[in-house]
Each structure stands twice: as C-alpha cells, then as structure tokens.
Fold each of these.
Amino acid sequence: MSKQLDVLFIHPNAAEKIYQDLSRDFSAIEPPIWAALLANHVRAKGYSCAILDCEAERLSVAQALEAIHDRNPRLAAFIVYGQQPSASTQNMTGVSLLNNALKDTYPQYPTIAIGLYPSALPEKTLQDEKLDFVGQGEGAATLVGLCQIDDKGDHSRLRQVPGLWYRHDGAIVAAGPAHNIAQEMLPQELPGMAWDLLPMKKYRTSNWHAFTNNNQNMPFASLYTSLGCPFKCSFCCINAPFGGSSFRYWSPEFILGEFDKIADMGIINVKIADEMFVLNQNHFMKVCQLIAGRGHHFNIWAYARIDTVKEEYLETLKKAGVNWLALGIESGVKTVRADVIKGKFEDINIRDVVQKIREHGISVIGNFIFGLPEDTEETMRQTLDLALEMKCDMINFYSCMAYPGSALHHVALEQKWELPDTYAGYSQHAYETKPLPTKHISAREVLAFRDRAFTRYFSDPGYLAFVKEKFGQETFDNIAVMNSHKLRRAIVEKSAASALSV
C-alpha cells in the first residue's frame, strides 16, 4: 500500500454499457478535464493527489478497487463529467457501480461525487447512492475544505465546507453554496491541467476527428479555454455547476502555455472542449493567433454556433489548426428551434455559413436533435433533409433528452413526463436510452426515427461519394464499418415484441 494520498480523483469505466459495441473502436476516450483541473488546484494548495482513469486504463471494478486501495486516499473523489456536458448523467453509471463496490469492500475510504449531475441534483444523488459527500458547484473550494478536516465525520467542521452536502443524524445537510472562481483568479486557482497525472498515450479522439489526421486517432488531448456559456438553450445542462449562465476564460497567453505542453508531448489531435469556443472574438481570435505564431501543427476540433461564425474569423482559425467546427444546428425548422430558445437564426443562412466554413478548408460536423417538444414526424424529416442537402463532413444525430440541470428537466418534472429510470437511460447510445416524447409523437417513435436517420445519412450515395473524394478510401471504409454497428434499443424492441404478441 502506498503512502496515504490526500485526494484520489477517479474517473470510472462504464463505456461498454453506455456506448455498446461502439466503445471498442469508435467512441472517444477523452482525458477527464475537470479531474485534471481540480488535481492541479489541490496540488497548488499543498495537498497530495493522483488520478485514476479507469476508462483509459480499461480497469474492471475489481481492478479499480485494488488500485484505489493501493493508493490509500484520505478522500476518493468521483469527478462526474464526460465527453460532452450531457454525458455527466450517463457517467453516474460507473460511479454507482464502483462506489457501491468500494463501500462493500473498503468502507474506510470517504467518497464524494463532484460534477454536473451531482451539482444539478445533490440531494437526490445522496439519497440514491452510498456516497459520503456530494459537492455542488465547481468543486475546488469543497475539496480543499474537506482536505483540511482529518475527521470526516466532524459535523461542526463539515457544515463550514462550501458546496458540501452530507448526512447527519439521519438527515441530509447542505453546508451552503460555493462561490465560482473569479475570472481573474483562474490562472492561480485552476492553473491548467495536471497532464503528468494522466495516461496521455491511452486517449483517443473520435474516428471522424482523425479524418483530417490520416485517420490517426491517438494520442489525443482535450482542454478548456473558457468555462460556461451565456446562452440559455432549454435542452442544455452545461451551467449546472456554475449556478446559472456564465462565461469566464483564461487569458490567451495562459492557454498558449497549455498548447505548448500538448505540443511537447507530441500530440496533434486536440479538442477544445469549451461549450462555445467561437464566441468572444477578443479571446478565441487571440488564442488562435498565438498558436499559429508558435508554428504548432495541430488537428483541432472546437464548437461554435451558426450565428457566432463570421467569415473574417475563418482564416485565423484554420491557421491555428482548427480543422473541424462543430455547429449546433439542432433543427431545420425555425419554429422548433425557437421553442427551445436556441435562436431563430432568422438573419442567418445556415447553408451559406456551412459553405463558407468549408471554403476555408475547415470541415463541419453538424449537430442535430430529433424529438424537440414541437417536433412531428414531418419536422424531423425536414431536419434530416437539411442534413442530407448540406452534406456536412460529419453529423451527430441526437434524440432530445431532459438532462438533469437543464430547463427542460425542470419542465419534465413539473409536467410529470416519463424520464429514464437509470443513468444509462440518458445516454444517446445505450440499450436503455429513453428520450422525451414530443407534443405530437412518442419517445419510441423519436428514437426509432433517429436511428433510421443515422443509417440513412451514412448510406447516402451523395454523402459517401463526397467523403471518398475528400478524405479517401480508408475514411470511406471506416464509415461503412461504423454504419454496420446497429444499436439495440429497449423501448423499440419492447414495442415490437408487444406488436407481435397482439
């Protein structure tokens, strides 16, 4: 057993349950950004820590238990985020499995869950799980507060820890809110990622991101240059840890230092995980200018909105190595978009924006959602038709979920809509996936349409010809293999079985 650590940050492994067969070769294995940020925060305050990435290391529950016991932590911290903001809930699957086993086998280790889902539903998280603590908020002040307490059962000390939820005398106690770190304090309080604590050679990017890197999807790094989002889309839960809409960012000069470290590690594939990188011109343009000035050769993927991309930005983005922009298009129907506060884009020609991006050598991944509240079979078909017409280099087709922490989740609870009864039910790819019904069609119909649309898009002769010409035969073959994986869906299979029995 090792010398006792103050904090062991844990990223559990539930990839196979969440992504089914896609977990083997196609789903990304992404560095746990928040675990690495919080680890550096804890170290800066003088406490010892390590990161156990069970997904990257492909550890079973039994193997993870022994790795935790070997590190002998004073606090085992589950950091519950994911490859995108919506993934926090589905990653509670791994937290629950591993924490239950840990409490059964080594109950002496205090455990805490910090992240988007625990922040959105702190009381429910404690009610449902055998955790000792839940941290609501960013987690930095909560972790340091716990590190300062030797006796983790001292109620008089625990109630002074910002953002902490815990049990006392049979009741759940909320110690009080933790304030967000001020923007000017980000470099001191969250001084970059603890790259040295991560198994960097084991991370891989999404298969499509590697199309612009000779299909080499490893190694891979991801990082934030900003935190939060100022927009209020009803289906999004990104701001749950921050208590509301917000936007803070590290200085471009500080971010350049992080990119220098990535380059020194020989990593080309990079995801800028900001919810909206192309937003504040003074920030993202300066970041890109500094990266380009260094002469780094990255293959970068970043997020934007249709109405934040301006043609005058594109040359600088490309020079920095931004080869992919992920655009939140969501729906091809204005009234459906407007209903979820996404924005009407009334003065924006979606097709024109996509074309201009591609004219500058930047590939486009279009993100679309089927099953928004006002969707019908016809409006979903119009969204699919728009995707087929534009032939984005890649697409994500999602079914609408009421993610905990989103405004839509609050509406769902108020209206008593049927929600998933498992964490994996919030995954887009799991067998248990259960999206929302719309005002007009059932959840089963939404999910069945989404899966048919995915197959239709990646079987489209026009799209396949475009991909083969642009990216080559290997990418063409890669897409064929991806499209051959058919996801099993519980609600679709049960409906079919019921129909047969009738």
Amino acid sequence: MPKTEEKYIVALDIGTSKVCVLVGEVTDRGQIEIIGKGTSPMKGTRRGNIINLDQAIEAVKKAVDEAEVMAGLQIESVYVGVAGDHIRSVNSRGVVSVTGKHREISREDIDRVIEASKSINVPAELELLHVIPREFVVDGQDGIHDPLGMTAGRLEANVHIVTGARTHNQNVLTAVNKAGIAVQELVLEQLAAAEAVLTQDEREMGVLLMDLGAGTTDYAVFLEGNVVHTNVLPVGAGHFTSDISVVLRTPMEDAERIKKRYGCALGSLVTEDDPIEVPTVGGRAPKILSKHELTNILEPRAAEIAKLVYRDIEKVGLDKEIRSGVVVVGGGAEMDGMVEMVEQVFDQQARKGMPRGLSGLSDTVAGPEWAAAAGLLLWGFRDRARVRKRPRRGFARIAEGFKSLFTQT
C-alpha cells in the first residue's frame, strides 16, 4: 500500500469504550474528504486514562488496520485526542515590551508574549498541552485578536492554558508508537470537537460544548471567539449502563443494549410504555420492565451530570455568558431526552452537535459520537495549512494556540 503523504490527515480518538480512526484526504479544492474509518472496542482505559497498555495497543492497531484497508494506504502519523479526569486548565497573562523598529509588533513579539504567559507554576506531574490566546492588549487597548503590525510600547496576552498528566500523555504516546504510528500532536478532545460542530456565531456569543463520553464528560466554554474555560467530570454515559446493570442485576452487555434501544433521560418524554425484557444472571427467568421504570433509573444520573457541569460554569461566573446555549456531543448525546434534560437544567436552548465541514464518507460519521474524531481532522488540516512539521515519536508537541487563532470557523 502507498504510504501516507502530506495530503492525508489521520485522526485517532482513544475513548473509554472504543477507539475511532478517521482518514482524510485534502482535495484540490482545499476540502477534507473522508476516505477511511476504523473502530475497535476499548477495554484498556478507565475514565479516559489508560490502565492496560497491551489492550490499548491492540485496540489502536485494530482500528488503524481497519481504516488502512478502507483508505488503501499506510498510516504513519496521527492527531490524537486527549481526555480524562487528569486534565487541568487555567487562565494566565503575559506582558512584554515592544522594542523593535518603529515599535511595530512583530511575529517575534507575539511569540514572546505567548511564552511569557506560560510562566506559571505547573506541578512536575503535569505538562502543557495547549496555550490558546483569548485576546491581546496593546497599550491598554483590549479585545484585539491580531496585533501584528500595530504600533505599541507594551503588548499583553490573556491566554487559556490546558495541562495534562505527564504519565497519562506518555502512556498515550507509548500505546500509539508501539502500534507503529507516530504522534503528530495531542489535542484536547473538547477543543477538537468544537472544530467540527460549533459555528463562529456561537463562539462569539458564548456557547458551552459538552462531550458526553463513556467514562468522562468533557466540556468547554467559548466566548468572543475563543475558549475561556475547560474542565472534565469523571462521570459519563457509561454510568447509565452501570446504573441499569446494578439496579436490574443484569449483565453490562445487556444493560448497554437496553440503554441504547430503550433509554430516555427525561420521564416527561415517555409516551408509550411497552414492556422491556431484562435478562438476569444465573439462568433465572428474565424480568419484565416498563419504559417508565427504566427512565426512573436513568433520569437522576442525567440530571446529576447536567447539574455538575452547570454548577462549575456558575462557579467561574460563565453561566450568564453562554447566550448561544449548549451543544452536546459524544455517545451520550444520542440518548433520547439528554438534550432536553440539559435545556431544563441550564434554562438554555441545546442541540446535538453533528460534524460539519467534511465530505466523502461524512454521512457515516454524521452522529455526535464522531464529533471529536471529525474535529481532529479539521484541527490537523488547519495545522498543516500553516506550518509543515515532522511528527515526533514519543514526545508530545506543545500546541501553540495562536496558530489557529485567526482561522476559527
């Protein structure tokens, strides 16, 4: 098979329940066409963290192999999504003097002020993943997105810094490298998903993106065009499955099937009440359950997740800033009533986030569970458009946020 060329971009989303791979080809028209995809069940992670390296490697290999066969090429490097309850974020500020000719702000000045903003105390067990400018301030004038060429004596940058556990990131890199693949960049999953599902108007007015994965709920708030807050809850859609399994004393596989087929997160939406057959363990006769009874198990967990996110947004003073409402992605967004539950808790409009901006096999990845993988393709496309970088094996490249600051969609 021919090797991966510059015109190909590959996304690798390592989730708690499955691994997803997407292969995109950059067309002559400058668009991304999906030409391959692969998935594999993942049993080597918990709450987004790798707990069994061998299982993680095998899952990555299987998903990559499937995508390679469909795309007809050999995958050499990937953009990898990062999630998990180890993610931490903080807003920071950097200041520099502009001393160049005629005191015009140069690209070097912008680089220096971004570097100055990173001078925060980062615990030894954490490492920087992203440094994303929120705005620049030129001689006291704020709200500037691109200060290049402006005249000033003082340049400030307000940035959003995302860190991840060094050991977790290294485990991800090891798993991918041992599957024979180089890591182009580690990208925070909710930032990747935002590339695929948010509009520029939503980013400007204020929007919350919620990614309901199996093991965690990752979320980010965007305001005035840029990310201002990110966080991770160690609770996700997999907890719906475990709740069903525990309450009904049924195997996890059956609980997952029942959740996907009959699950609803809001009792007021249940109209029909057809009986649900629930397998039991030990050869006992199956139980018969109504849909209302099933919803009574799921609704408290759905409300808990939405309320935990809301309280965090409220704590940082952003609850009144999400004027465009909430966009819900991830496998958990597929459950009936989840979007309506979020609307009820936040008292805001909400919608499922469907990936946009891709062609080819895009109809096969049109659901909200593909938002992160689709977004990784778009992230990689914009990265490639600005600078050609060789992938590294074994080391994460710090994602300098200014590279995509001026090209958000």
